[in-house]
Amino acid sequence: MLNWTLALPEIVLGVSGLFILLGGVIPKKESFFPVSMAVIGALILAAVLVLGQGEGTAFLGQYVADNFSRFAKVLILLGAALGLLLALDFNEKAGLGRFEYPVLMLFATLGMMVMVSANDLMSLYIGLELLSLSLYVIAAFDRDNPRSAEAGLKYFVLGALASGLLLYGASLVYGFAGTTNFDRLADALSGDDVGTGVVVGLVFVLAGLAFKVSAVPFHMWTPDVYEGAPTPVTAFFATAPKVAAIALLMHVLIGPFGDLSAQWMQVIWVCSAGSMILGAFAAIGQRNIKRLMAYSSIGHVGYALMGLAVANDTGYRGVLVYMAIYVVMNLGTFAVLIAMRRRGRALEQVEDLAGLGKTDPAMALWMAVFMFSMAGIPPLAGFFGKLYVFLAAVQGGFWTLAVIGIVTSVIASYYYLRIVKVMYFDAAPDGALDARPASLTVVMASTGLLTLLFFLFPAALIGAAQVAVASLAG
Amino acid sequence: MEIALPLAIGVLVAAAAYLLMARDLPRGLLGFVLLGTAANLTIFAAGRIGTMTPPLVAPGAQALEAGAANPLPQALVLTAIVIGFGLASFALVLLRRAHAEFGSVMSEDMQEAEPPLAAAPPAEPAPTPPPARPRPVPAPAALREVV
Amino acid sequence: MSIAPSLALGLPLGLGLAGAIAATMMKRGVAQAGAAVAALAFLLYLLAAPGVTETTDLRFGFWSVPSLGVVGGLRLDGLSLVFVLLITGIGALVLLYASRYLKGDTRLPRLVTLLLIFMVAMLGAVTADDVVTLFVFWELTSLASFFLVAYDHEKPGARKAALQALLVTGGGGLALLAGLILVAMAAGTTSLSGIIAAREAVLAHPAAIPAMLLVVLGCFTKSAQFPFQFWLPNAMAAPTPVSAYLHSATMVKLGIYLLARLNPVYQHEAFWQELLTTAGLLTTAVGAIYALRESDLKRVLAWTTVTALGSLTMLIGLAPALSATAAVTFLLVHALYKAALFLVAGIVDHETGTRDAAALGGLRRAMPLTALAAVLAALSMAGLPPFVGFVAKEIIYEAKLATGGAAGLFASIGFLVNAAMVAIAGLLSWRLFFGPLRPTPATPHDPPKSMLAGPILLAGLGLLAGAAPSLVGAWLVDGAVAAMLGAPAAVPLKLWHGFTPVLALSAATIALGLLLLLAWGRLMPRLRRASAFDRFDTARLYDRALAGLVAWAEGTTRLVQHGSLRGYMQVLLLVAALGPLAVLVARGGLDLPEAAPLDFRALAFLPIALGAIAAAVARGTLAAVMATGLVGFGTALVFLTFGAPDVALTQFTVEVLLIVILATVLIRLPVRARDVRTGRQRTVDAAVAGALGLSVALVLLAVLAAPFDPRLGEWFGAESVPGGHGRNVVNVILVDFRALDTLGEIAVLAIAAFSVIALLRASGRGARVGS
Known about the structure:
The complex is a heterotrimer of chains A (474), B (147) and C (771).
Chain A: H1 8-25, H2 32-51, E1 56-58, E2 63-65, H3 67-93, H4 100-117, H5 121-139, H6 146-177, H7 182-188, H8 196-213, H9 221-228, H10 231-238, H11 240-254, H12 261-282, H13 289-310, H14 313-339, E3 341-342, E4 345-346, H15 356-359, H16 361-375, H17 381-395, H18 399-425, H19 438-453, H20 458-473
Antiparallel strand pairs in A: 1-2, 3-4
Helix pairs in contact in A: 1-2, 1-4, 2-3, 2-4, 3-4, 3-10, 3-11, 3-14, 3-20, 4-5, 4-11, 5-6, 6-8, 6-9, 8-11, 8-12, 9-10, 9-13, 10-14, 11-14, 12-13, 12-18, 13-14, 13-17, 13-18, 14-16, 14-17, 14-19, 14-20, 16-18, 16-19, 17-18
Chain B: H1 4-20, H2 25-46, H3 71-102, H4 141-146
Helix pairs in contact in B: 1-2, 2-3
Chain C: H1 5-25, H2 30-48, E1 58-65, E2 70-76, H3 78-101, H4 108-127, H5 131-149, H6 156-187, H7 192-197, H8 199-204, H9 208-222, H10 231-234, H11 240-249, H12 254-266, H13 270-293, H14 297-317, H15 321-352, H16 368-382, H17 388-401, H18 407-433, H19 449-467, H20 469-485, H21 501-529, H22 538-560, H23 565-586, H24 606-617, H25 621-641, H26 645-668, H27 679-705, H28 711-724, H29 729-737, H30 739-766
Antiparallel strand pairs in C: 1-2
C-alpha cells in the first residue's frame, strides 16, 4: 500500500540533505565548497535513482511516479546541479560562500520533486511551500546588497499571496468534490455540470501556479527579483523551478481537471498570449541583462504554455521539449553572464558585453549560440522548441495564438540579436575580463554543444517527451 | 451556519486584503496572517460544518458514528496552520532584515530594482491605469545608434 | 558522364563547410583556397548536370521525423541547377577577387569563412526538397548576410545597415515559416515536390490565401520588393565582393527562387498573378527612379538590382511559358552582367579611391582591361545585340506584349525603366572610362589578374551566351522553365527575331537611354533634390516604426512594471476579486445553501469579524497585532464549537506564540505606527478589499450550496480503528493515512527554521545600512 520505495529518490535526497546540513554546521570554518560538492553528488545520485525508478502510486495515492515525473525530475535535477555549479566560484568571490546556499538549493529541489510527484492537492501545496521557502531565502541571500533583500521581500510577499490563492482554490475544489486526491478528483469532475466553486477553484489553483512559472498576469515579481538576486540565484530561478511548476501545471490540468479542459484552455490561452507579448515588448528597452532575461523567461513561458493551451498530446509534447531546451539555453546564457567580471566587479549591463568577440572569442561564440537559439533561429535547438509548439498550435487550429507567437518571436529576436551586435561590433572597453573558472567553461561548453548540435539527434528528446506525455494522458 | 461562516470569512478576507495593500510592511504581514486564517477556515467550511461532535471513535465501536464532524478537513487544517506559522515567522525575519538594510519598513522605499532611466514611476498607481501622460520617451543611446 | 546524387548534392555542402572551418585556421592563401573549394563544387554540379533535364532530377534524402510527417532531403532539378551553378561559379570568382581586394586585411579569413558558410546556406536552400530544410538554410543566409554587411563594424552605418537587413529579411523569414507550415499542412507533406503534386489540396485549404500571402511576404522581403526594397542599397556598406555575391547575384534572388519554385501551385490563381505583377512593376519603377538619383556607383548598382528583381517577380506573375522563359533567361543574364559591374565598381573604388560617378571619367587609358570588362557587361545590361542581354530583353518585351489587356501599361512602364537601365549602363561604361580624365585621390591603373579574372570572365560569358542562345536554352533554361511551370514548355531562345515590333521597341529604348545618359549630369542632382520621391521612401516608415516601437515598449513597460509592491498587490487582488465574480455572472447567478436557522453558535463567528475589522482600522501597529490575535482566538473558538477540538488547541497555541513573537519584534522596530495611507488611497483599497471579500463569500456560498460527497470522510472514520489503530480519527489521518503530508509539513517547518537562521546569519554582519 505505501510503496515507499517509489519515493526513494526523494527520501535519499532528504536524508542526504540532513547529513550534509550536519556536516556543514559542525566545522568551525565556512564549508561552502565541500558542502556544494556533496549536494551536487546527492543531486546526481537522486537523478540516477529517478532513472531506475519503477512506476506506480505510493502513500495511498498521494504520490505518483511515472514516465512524466521521471522526465521532469531528471530535468530538474540536471538544472539544479548545473545551477549549483554556476554558483561555486561566484559565491566565493561575492562573499556568498556560506554552506546554507547549497543546502537550501537541495531542499528547493526536494520541494520541486515533491511537486512533480504530488498526486494530491495538499501534497502539492506542501511541495510548493517547501520550494518557495527555500527560494525566498536564496533570493535575499546577498547581505551586502540591499536589492537582494528587496528581491527576497517582494518575492515573498507576492509569492505568499499566490500560495494563499492556491490554497483557497484547492479548498473550493475540495468543497465540491469531497476529496483532494487527483485520481478521485478526475472521477468527481467528469460530469457535465461541475459547479461554480470548482471553476473558481480551478482558476485560483491556476493563478497560484502561474505565479510560479511567472506567466502574465502573475509575472510582476520576475524582473525585480531576477535583477536583485545574485546572478547564480537568478540562473536557478529561471531554470529548475520553472520546469517543476510547468510540470505541475500540466499534471494538475491534464489529470484531475482533464475534463474541464474547455475552461482552462481559455485561461492558459490568455496567459500564453499575454506572456509572449509582454516578454517581447518589455525586454526591448532593458539594459540590465538580468532584467532582460527576466522578460525573456516570461516570453519563453508563453511559448511553452502555447503547447498546453492546445490541450492535445502533440501540444503537451511540445511543452516538454520546449522546457528541456529552454533550461539548457538558459543555463548556458547565465554561465556567460556569471563569467562577466572585470577587476572583481560583476558586470550586468548589456553594454558591458561590448567587444567580447575580440576579448574572449570562445565565450562570445557560446553567447551568440545561446542568443540565436533563444531568438529561434535554425538550426539551433531553440528553433525546434518553437517549431514543435507552433506546429501543435497550427494543427490544433489555434491560428491566432500561433500568429502572436510568430510575431512576438520576430520582435524578441531584436533584443537577442542586439546582444550579438554589441558583442561583435561595439568597441571593447579597457581591461580584460577576469579569468574564468573551469566550472563555468564546463557548463558553457556542454550546454552550448547541446544547443548547437540538437538538430542532429532530436529523436532522443522528442521520444522521451512522447513517452512522458503518454503516461500523463494515458 | 452555511451562510454565517462564508460571510465571516468574507469580512476576514476583506480586512486581510486591506492590510496587504497598506504602505507599511508590518501591516502587510498582519494581512498575510489573516489571509492564512481565512484559508484555514475555508478548508474547514468546505468539508461542511454543522455538527458539534468531534470525530472520535467511541470506545468499543469500530467505526465513527454518523453525525460526527468530517475528520479530513481537520487534518488538512492542522497541516495548514503549522505551515502558516512557519511562513509567518520567516516573514517576520525577512521584515527585520529589510528594516536593517533600508532603515524603513515602507514598501515604497524599496524600489532600488527599478530601471534608472524611469523618470518618476507613478508614485501611487490607482488600480485602474491612470490616463496616459504624453511624455517624450528618449530612446536609450545604445538603441538610437542602432535604429 | 554522370555522378552519384549523393556526391553531387552532398559533397558540395560538406566541402563548403570543411572549407569554412579550415579558413579560420589558415594564415595565407585563404581566399584562394576558398575559391578552389567553390570551383570544385561548381565542377561537381557541372558533372551532375547531364542527369538533370526537363523531366528528370537527382534526389538525395537524408533525414526524417516520421511522427511529424517531416521528411527532409535534397533535390536537384532544372531550376535548382541554374542557381547552384550561379552560386558556386560566381562564388569562386568573387573569392578569387577578394584575395586581392582585401589583401593584407587581417579579417580576411573571417570573411572567407562567412562567404563559404553563406555559399553552403544558399546551396542548401536552393536544393532543399522540404520546407524545413529550406527555411533553415534560408535564415542562415540572412544571418551570414548580417555578419558580412557588418564587416566594417567600426562604422555605425554598417552596423545599422546590417541590423536593418537582418530585421527585414529575418522577419520576413518568420512569416515565410508560418506560410510554409500552413502550406505543408494543407498538402499533408513537408516535401516541396509533394506540395506541388498536392496542388489542389493546397488551394482548397481554408487558409490558402493567408498562407500564400505569408510565403509571398517572406519572398518579397528577401528579394527587396516594394515596399521592402530599402534594405538592399543600405546593405552596400558591405565590402564590394560581398555586394557582388550576396546582394546582386545570389541571396536576393532566393525570394525569386521560391516564387518560381511554388509557381506550379499558384500559377493559375488570378490573385497570385496580380500580386506578383503589381509588386514587380512598382519595384522596377522605384528601382529605376532611385538609380537615377544616386551617384555612388554601388548604390546605383543596388537600385538597378532592385529593378531587375522587380522584373523577375513580374515575369513570374505573368504566367505563360513565354514569360517563364524570359524570367530564367533574364535571371542568368542579370547575374552575369551585374556581378561583373559590381566587381568593376570595386576595382574603380580600389584603384582611384572614390566611387562617386560624378567625379570619375576617362579611366580607359589608365585601366584598359577594366574598361573592357565594363563595356562588355554594360552592353549586355543595355540589351544590345549580340549580347545575351539583348536576347533577354527581346523576350521580356514579347512576354509583356503578350499579356493582353494590360499589355500597354506593362510595355510602357517597361520601356521607361529599360531606357533608364540603358542610361545607367552608359554611365558605368562610357562616362566612367571615356571622355576627359578627371583627377582622382589615387593614381589609377589596372589591377592584378586575380581581380580582373572575375569581371572579364563574367562579361565575356554574356557575349558568348548571346552568340549561342539555343545552347544556353537547351542546357539551362528549358529545365528551369519546366520546373517553374510543372511541365516542359520552354520557348526556344533566339538572337534574331527578324524585324518585329519588339525590335522597334528595343531601338527606341536605346535611343531614349542615350538621351538620358547625355542629360545625366544635370538630371541626377535634380532628381535627388526632388523631395516628392522621399515620401515614397519606405525606409523612413521602417525607421519610424522601429523607433516608435522602442519608445512605446519602454513607456508601457514602465507603466506596467512600476516596481511598487503595493501596486502589484492591488492588481493581483483586483484580479482575484473580479475573476470569480465574472464566473458567477457568466454562470447565471448564485444558489444559496439551504439556510438552517441560526442558533447561538453563530456567535462564535463574531470575534472573527470584529477582530478583522479592528485589525484593518487599528491606528497603531500594536493594536493591529492584538486585533489579529483576537481573530486567531475567534477561529479557535469556531473550531471548538464545530467539533474540532484538536484543531482548536493547535490554533490557540500557535496564535499565542505568533502574537508574542510579532509583538516582540514589531515593538523593537522604530517604525511609524500609523497607517500612512492617504484618505483617497484608503478608499480605493477599501473598495478593492471589499470586492474581494464579497467575491470570496459568494463563491463559498455557492460551494456550500452544492451537495457534498462525504464518502472519503466516512472511509477514514471506518478505517481509523482497523487500519490505523487509533480512535482519534484526525490523529490517525495525520500520522498514518496522510503521513506524507505530515512529513512534508515538518520539513517545511524545519526549512523555515533553517531559513530564519540563514537569514539572521546573513544580516548579522550585513546590518550596516540604516540602524
